[in-house]
Amino acid sequence: MGVESRKLQNVVLEMCEYFKEREELVKLLILAVLSKQHVYILGPPGTAKSAMARAIASHFDAKYFEWLVTRFTTPEELFGPIDLTALEKGEYKRIKANKLPEAEIAFVDEIFKANSAILNSLLSIINERIFHNGGMAVKVPLNTLIAASNELPEDEKELAALYDRLLIRYFVEYIKNDGNFEDMLKRSNGYTPKTRIAKDELKVMQENVAKVDIGPVLPTMVELRRNLRENGIVVSDRRFKQAMSVVKAHAFFHGRSAAATDDLRVLQHVMWDSPEQMRTVRKVIVDVVDPFARKVMEYRDIISDYTSKLQSKIDSAEVQEIMAKLKVIENEIKELSKMALGSGKDTAELDEILDEIQSLKVSMLDKMF
Length: 369
Hints:
Helix content is 55%, strand content 9%. It is built from 15 helices and 7 strands. Strands 2-3-6-1-7 form a 5-stranded parallel sheet, with helices on one face. The chain has a two-stranded antiparallel sheet with strand order 4-5.
């Protein structure tokens, strides 16, 4: 692994030490910066969306801008006030100092509450990196926009166009593990980065990302598109094309100069439109990339479903039925673990699932007595 990759790994370690259960999102934010793509984070309030945006920006020598949008937000708040001096001369333009048109990394919360006047400017900024000011198309330095909201956009044409431009998508939830929740309560407010990446360093990284060879994964991409369509997931050619920049960034992040099949895992955060599609997309992609990982994913989904069921009222007969199913899953995992060890695969994830099953069984017994 090169110096560049190690530095990026250090950023992940620092952020994950502070933001518990956010490793996947941290990596996606880094991949977005490396590939000059935009991110959409969907999730309830209080899941550290804005704090993480600020934190990732603090690791890069980048001009940062953030804003919470409401139905009453005006274009001036994001793009700057009208230049009155210019207006006296008959020129209609904005003073964009310290506003979104000057940002290199930006965070816009509740982005889908923006009105049409804001949306039109946002579209040209994130899609073409152009801000129309006083009749002139001005290039903006925006590298990555991180957008967030508590809900998906409605079927309005303008919102759909904006949503489509947010390539990387992630659904964030509240912290699940009690220990991680306790750590979050104890941590001090305010994130301080240790690893910093200068502009020149990032530029070199991005140039190297662009050079990553995607040739080895192209046949798999064809298979992947076919399998997604067979499962009712239709993705545009443009999204597939843009997605390759994230695949390249993933390979670079892991110290590779050519993309490998494993790098296609990241596409599970690119190919869905609604949360209902997430499980299908993940299954299709993991099935193509790594059948072993697919089984791990299926077991995690089952455990998650049973854990959710515990939150509602269930009788002792249901508890006994779930306990019996968990016993079958335990035996399957133990067999799969033996096969994995025989083929040289890491069984850490399977061991984690077995631990989760034990915890779930204890909770189930509590429900019975």
